[in-house]
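dumping this here before i forget
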Amino acid sequence: MAKSTTRFFCTECGHEELRWLGKCPGCGQWNTFKEMKITPEGGKKGARGFASGAAGGPGRRSAPGFAGPGPQGPLQAVPLARVGSAEHERLPVEPAEVARVMGGGLVTGSVVLLGGEPGVGKSTLLTGLALWWARQGVRVLYVAGEEAPAQIRMRAERLGFAPDKEEGFAILPEVHLESLVDTLAREVADQVRQPEVTSTEGDGSDPQPRQACIAIVDSIQTLHSEHIDAFPGSPTQIKYCGGVMADFARRSGCPVFLVGHVTKTGDLAGPKLLEHMVDTVLYFEGSDGGPIRMVRAVKNRFGNTGELAVLEMRADGLVPVDQAGVLFLSARRGSEPGAAVCAVRNGSRTFLVEIQALVSASRYGTPQRVVQGVDSKRVALLAAILEKRAGLDLAGCDIFVKVAGGGRIDDPGADLAIMAALASSLRERPVPQSTLVLGEVGLTGEVRRVTDLDARLLEAGRHGFARVVMAPPAHRGKRAGGKALEIAACSSVEEGIAMALEPAAGRARGGN
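structure:
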């Protein structure tokens, strides 16, 4: 029996040390080191056995251009010119909202990590994708680590499961890593033995092999290996099991989905190394208990990072939201102080969002700062700039800021809109309903141009906005959607706030 060795691992980032430390040198967190017993020799044997056995045995289909160890001989370097392109190995994904977030499709041999709050709908999303793939003739293996097969059957029936059409949807109630990998390897080998789907003769294209299968592991925290002396869900188990599953996917060509838990701060649980191992990291977010769900790509080796899919949870599953670009403006009143609209970019899409702010005199010793949908430190920074550069007295006021509709903003182009909403609430003067506020703000109070300006103005013109408060554009006479937009150019925060609020006062006087 191999000798066990004691190591200390950080529960936040997975950093390893030989002794306990108060502060982790990897992530800087305090009191996060936990003692774990590992078996180095057993772990090496398990990894080596998988590479040359289960994944390298007869019938193995490697990822494009990969020559793994096994009966073919030792590992050899492959010239780049002989490596197949991953674009030809993409598997279609439905709905199109999810396909765009994943870069246009599921790449052969890729590993996708999906994280989200408990009950947000991760299993529902993956079950719906599995049913759609099964109808296309693709075999899907659902590893049930948290649920009984009967529970998955109930969910599939709610999503429209038809036994005569989804014969390729199979469930594996197994959490032992070595047994699971052996079973998956046999399934891949059986699928690869089936004949290839060749292209039409004479069209000049290469034959496309039939996709073997797709593995969905729900969840990675439930897997455990006999080579690691630690409980399931520990950083050591997650790191080892995630590495073996990623190695299996790339050697066999079978795409693997890993469902991950999140911590109370919203980050994926387990070592940060797991996110580096995988190809795509998706966050599945809710909207304050409502039916709207958002899938956000924070890492994607095969597509754009920052893409956002907007879905709605219904009784029959998740469906794409029509007119997602104006989703966050659906219940907008437009005549109340403390609100401003801006156009933000998420990947390749533009969304119009309403930022709401409430500023009131503080009745306690320390003013409150409550923020939803925006980084709280960013709001505190913008409030300090308003005080210093625009002369607004916010030091003794409670500040509440949120993004209407449950959205989340990371775009710096929303800085001026946040400040306009704060000034509007403090001065009790609304921003006109047809005015868009757009711009990044620096510490010296200057208003800067935003990226992808044409796309933002085009989206604003499509939805009836006639005026934009922003930094001077590079070219005059901007038009959007066939309608000329009035551009109120400002170079400082003080000018921007005045331009955003003065038209409201002028129109009010004109109506009296």
